[in-house]
């Protein structure tokens, strides 16, 4: 099922080019965010990234709606994007708020109990909460668009979808991680090739190892200075390309997997019997 969904996702990316717009828009805003961050313009960087995150639900909804209707035309894409924008956005806001509250409720007792070790424990707790929410809520947008569900109904459907076939869903997640690693390693190779003349002397001289690690802002400034203007642009470009490639694939793969699971469950739920000639009669 996972492999079949993978192949279908690749076919959808070819059949419906507008799915790529989600990755392109988010990739551009994320790349600009990285560029502005490394250039010291942190005030504008956050606003550009926020703009991208607010635009993303429209393109996700448009992509999922087009896949649902098997029509990749611009008219259908725009219609579905406008129709389901808040169905995708609002559950994400609820998840963000719930994750923050959960992390706070868990981190406070840990800080009291562990004292000096509370910072490391809080980081692990935050990561665990985020991964748990992502595990069970990953399909909420697909459920919201395909089944036209509200905020909490889509979250509930996503959790039920994961739990009913947990092993296959974990394999699906593993395939996504593998695809992301493949794109990531390719991006690292490209980034290294673009900046080899600048990075090789620094690595040989040991300047990279001497960077101040106690202050994140200082590390960022030193790293940007080592890269130079061209290196900063190259870093932002590679980062944008990774997102532009992976996000559309993730959307198409998720939609294909959700649809295939739904088709299997619908077939299994039919009640009937075969006659002596092997013909199926539905009750």
What do you see in this structure?
- The protein is mostly helical and 283 residues long.
- It has one domain (2-262).
- The protein has helices at residues 2-15, 20-38, 42-69, 74-114, 118-137, 140-146, 151-164, 166-194, 196-205, 216-269, and strands at residues 272-274, 280-282.
- A two-stranded antiparallel sheet has the order 1-2.
- The longest helix is centred in the last third of the chain and has 54 residues, at 216-269.
- It starts with a helix and ends with a strand.
Percent range for β-strand residues: under 5%
Shape designation: globular
Compute the number of structural domains: 1
Q: What are the low-pLDDT stretches, counting only 5+ consecutive residues below 50? A: 266-271
Distance between the termini: 27 Å
Q: Could you state the oligomeric state of the chains shown? A: single chain
Radius of gyration: 23 Å
Average pLDDT over all residues: 85
Question: What is the number of beta strands?
Answer: 2
Number of DSSP helical runs: 10
Order of helices and strands: HHHHHHHHHHEE
Helix content: over 70%
Structural class, by secondary structure, is mainly alpha
**Sheet with the most strands, sense and barrel status:** 2 strands, antiparallel
Q: Numbering strands along the chain, what is their spatial order in the largest sheet?
A: 1-2
Protein name: DUF4013 domain-containing protein
Transmembrane segments: 12-36, 48-67, 88-115, 121-140, 173-196, 233-253
Keywords: Membrane, Transmembrane, Transmembrane helix
């Amino acid at each position: 099922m996972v492999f079949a969904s993978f192949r279908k996702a690749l076919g959808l990316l070819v059949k419906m080019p507008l799915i790529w717009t989600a990755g392109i828009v988010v990739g551009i805003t994320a790349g600009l965010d990285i560029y502005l961050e490394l250039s010291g313009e942190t005030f504008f960087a956050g606003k550009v990234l926020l703009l991208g995150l607010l635009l993303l639900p429209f393109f996700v909804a448009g992509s999922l709606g087009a896949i649902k209707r098997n029509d990749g035309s611009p008219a259908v894409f725009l219609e579905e994007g406008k129709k389901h924008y808040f169905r995708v956005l609002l559950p994400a806001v609820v998840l963000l708020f719930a994750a923050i509250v959960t992390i706070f409720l868990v981190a406070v007792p840990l800080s009291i109990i562990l004292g000096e070790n509370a910072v490391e424990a809080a980081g692990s707790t935050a990561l665990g909460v985020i991964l748990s929410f992502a595990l069970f809520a990953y399909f909420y947008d697909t459920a919201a668009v395909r089944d036209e569900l509200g905020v909490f109904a889509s979250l509930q459907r996503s959790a039920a979808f994961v739990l009913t076939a947990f092993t296959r869903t974990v394999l699906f997640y593993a395939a996504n991680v593998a695809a992301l690693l493949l794109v990531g390693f390719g991006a690292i190779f490209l980034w290294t090739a673009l900046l080899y003349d600048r990075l090789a002397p620094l690595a040989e001289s040991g300047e990279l190892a001497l960077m101040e690690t106690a202050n994140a802002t200082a590390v960022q400034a030193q790293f940007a200075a080592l890269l130079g203007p061209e290196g900063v642009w190259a870093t932002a470009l590679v980062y944008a390309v990774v997102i532009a490639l992976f996000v559309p694939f993730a959307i198409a793969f998720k939609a294909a997997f959700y649809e295939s699971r739904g088709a299997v469950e619908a077939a299994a739920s039919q009640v009937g019997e075969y006659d002596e000639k092997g013909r199926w009669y539905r009750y």
